[in-house]
Amino acid sequence: MLTDSVQCQAAQAARYDQSPRTSLHVELASFVDTFSRRKLPHMAVIQPTPDHVLDKATIEQLKRVNTTAVVDVLARNGYEPHYVYMPNVRTMNPGQRLVARAITVRFVPARPDGMAEKPGGEESPEFAAFELAGPGDVIVMESMRNKRMSIGGDIKFLRLKQRGVDGLVCDGGIRDMHTVQDYGVGMWGLDKTSNLGTRVGTPYSTNDTVAVDGILVRPGDYIVADDDGVVVIPRIVAPEIALKAIEYDDLEEWIRRRLDKEQLTPGLYYPPDDEVIAMYRKEKAEQGG
Questions:
Q1: How far apart are CA 43 and CA 242, in angstroms?
Q2: What would you report as the CA-atom Rg of the chain, rounded to the nearest whole angstrom?
Q3: Average pLDDT for residues 78-82, to the nearest whole number?
Q4: d(Cα 156, Cα 153) in Å, to the nearest integer?
Q5: Which of 2, 164, 265, 278 is deepest in the core (most CB within 10 A)?
Q6: In this structure, are residues 172 and 189 in contact, taking their beta carbons and an 8 Å threshold?
Q7: Eight-state DSSP code of residue 114
């Protein structure tokens, strides 16, 4: 069931995007009110999305940073790759870059009794997630690490385009990419598929803690994704990691320029230790950077 706290979602969206979006906020408030007055089957779990902790300017800067640099920075700050990097999830429409807040959906294996309990239509957990999402958000689906688990296609994902959702990440299969690729929504998954997912899995919850490709994702975490892969930045450290990743990306560029100029072995500066980082910061400060 949706809790009363879900009703703060419209206000949260307003804090993220300060430009006028009156119609979006009205839609969201109406959606939340509708759900709060309905009695859903026991199985449905729909929870609110935590507030953004990154502002738009930081997100835009972070979008220019490759996932490889984000992995390196997370590893230097206590989050090893096996905590944050999805090794088998890949881009379905190359060239997209994503930094967005996670709104999660969990699928469970299909079984007749569970399928009968699942709310139908707009009350189904994946559609509930779509209505909670907007610009700056990514739908993250635990899909049982199975290509046969089709999590949707052109008709379902048209709603993501309509709502301006930034992307979708799953560890299942995605249908109809020949059409979905034109929606302007970044898609990352285990693979493309033609299978009928409703015979394989059932959407169980919205904004629950999930495991995608074996990696923990919580609602409100940030997903960074590009052609190289998908990485999770835990919400609790997102402001710190974002700033460090932006600096680290610039540091790597500084190292590349220096090595190219000096024609020396990469081992002189890379991977960067405290001494190299101090050299970089000193030079940046002298240049007024």
A1: 36
A2: 21
A3: 98
A4: 6
A5: 2
A6: yes
A7: H
Give residue-wise pLDDT tens across range 200-240: 999 999 999 999 999 999 999 999 999 999 999 999 999 99
Return the residue matching tokens 């699942």.
118
DSSP string, 225-247: EETTEEEEE-GGGHHHHHHHHHH
- Supply 183's token pair: 């929606």
Distance CA 255, CA 236 (A): 30
Residue whose tokens read 């995605």: 174
Average pLDDT, the chain: 89
Query: Over pLDDT 90: what percentage of the chain?
Result: 79
Cis peptide before 271 (omega within 30 of 0): yes
- Angle in degrees, CA 18, 183, 181, rounded to 5: 135
pLDDT at 15 over 50: no
Tokens of 165: 């959702």
Spatial distance between the Cα atoms of 272 and 269, rounded to a whole number of angstroms = 5
Residue 10 pLDDT exceeds 50:
no
Tell whether the model's pLDDT for residue 118 goes beyond 50.
yes
What structural domains and CATH numbers belong to the chain?
A: 44-235 (3.50.30.40), 241-286 (no CATH)
> H helices then E strands: how many in the chain?
11, 13
As a whole number of angstroms, the distance between CA 15 and CA 132 comes to 15
pLDDT of residue 111 exceeding 90: yes
- Phi-psi domain of 173 (left: phi exceeds 0; alpha: psi -120 through 50; beta: other): beta
pLDDT at 43 over 70: no
Give dist(CA 116, CA 223) in Å, integer: 33
Measured CA to CA, the distance from residue 122 to residue 212 in angstroms comes to 24
